[in-house]
Amino acid sequence: MGDKKVEAPLTAETVKNLKAGDGVLLSGVIYTARDAAHKRLVDLIDKGGQLPFDPEGSVIYYVGPSPAPPGHVIGAAGPTTSCRMDSYTPLLLKHGVKGMIGKGQRSAEVKRAIQEYTAVYFGATGGAAALISGAIVEAKMIAFDDLGTEAVRRLVVKEMPLVVINDCYGRDLYIEGKRKWSRE
User: Fold this and answer.
1) pTM above 0.85, yes or no
2) Domain 4-181, what fold?
């Protein structure tokens, strides 16, 4: 069947067409943020402040890229472990974020929020940071410069290879994959 081509920002309709296990080639604008940036984003929301990007339909990539080598827009950009963002994720989904990219399993609370807010969690292949950075065609720091590699960046990506891990229907590729290949 091949990979589905998906454009960010995401719409609810797009998210509804994605199922756990689908291969995706994501293009468009996404944002980087790890745990320190997530804490600041949630603090801004709690204080009634404005986020440094429009959260509606946005996709957040859990990454702290290395510095860009000469002639490149970004350095290695592999995913970080997603569970570190779990305590912040439901509030960001409530405020319009539709997609997240990372590696590893999500908490039951995040999986419920993915269903409630019609969102999606994509897995990026860990250990393929140099390959993934090739899909990033533009990178610009937009907030929290003092966090260095963990600052919030606006990225433009072209056909970033991802896999849907958690869909808006409650399916979890990690659970289904184990079940499918279990010998029990």
Assistant:
1) yes
2) fumarase (3.20.130)
